[in-house]
Amino acid sequence: MVGAMSEADLVRQLKRAEERVERASRALAPKHKGGEWEEFEAAHDDLLRLERALASHRGESFAEPLDFPVRWDIGAPLPHLVQSDNATYLAFYLGPQAGASQDGSVGYGEPQVVDSRADDALAIVRFDGCVSTQMGDPNDEVFQGHPLYGRGLQGYRPMVVRNSAWINQLQAINSVHSMYDPSRWTDLNHYFFGFHDSTFECVARSFEVEIMNTSMSDALRKMCERLVE
User: Fold this and answer.
1) What pTM does this model have?
2) Which runs of consecutive H residues, i.e. helices, occur in 35-183?
3) Which of 41, 118, 181, 185 is most buried when burial is the number of CB atoms within 10 A of its CB?
């Protein structure tokens, strides 16, 4: 079991996992005999599992997949951030994934194919209890330069950061306040969304996802209206 391994054992296992990914990557180049892609995915998943286990053992920040109901368009999700002091919304175009019911609620059952461009299917994520956001670099060409790379980070999917150094930093800043309450920070999460051209991160308590079949301009208008309600 990973949890029972020493740090030295985890380092050795991680080294072997890196070598396995390298071999699997090379096997993708020549003419395929079958099973090469499956082996690469399995090797990569094992590598990420060990990266997270080692970082957790060391008490370091690491990223793991977030339980999230939709997948965004990998090529051009065009994320838009709308926020005020009291509310934070993130909108982006969707790729093929679980669709929405007639009332707009998210479907968690069997995935339905959604043509995101034909229907202008997009998601609006509302972050509750959001205390900080950042959006911009890195894009997908330089994810390898992110501090969480090599600690379970994956692009093109929502992640949650455990042992977040960012949350610790924000808490330390706020600790100088005369009304500082450490319990306020116990239920906050560090969310990471690695898009094609940008990255969005925020610290918030929770989130809700709404699927809409409309244009981005209409979605932005709705988000702005909600900010002032």
Assistant:
1) 0.85
2) 36-58, 116-119, 165-174
3) 185
